[in-house]
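Lab notes, practical 5.
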Amino acid sequence: MTIALLERLYAIPQEALRRKCTVTYRVGYGDDPEQTAPSYFAREVMFCVGHAIHHYAILKLLCTEAGVALPREFGVAPSTLKHLESTVGA
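Output from the prediction step:
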């Protein structure tokens, strides 16, 4: 499933990634009005990937507690992995 999703993400044409969009969100709870912000499709895809990693980190904690083995990289941000690799042996 994850591999298929990655393949589809890599297949998104560059012109689509550069497409402007408007993000609509609520900054508070209750009856606060919606807010909008200009963005780009690529930025929103990157946000979704980063947010998924955040959720994967939570899942990793639950899986570890349940004795389910996962790859070391699961739920760890790429920037964190890169930092860890650069500090090995330092």
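Observations recorded by the TA: Helices lie at 2-10, 14-17, 41-65, 78-87. The longest strand covers residues 20-25.
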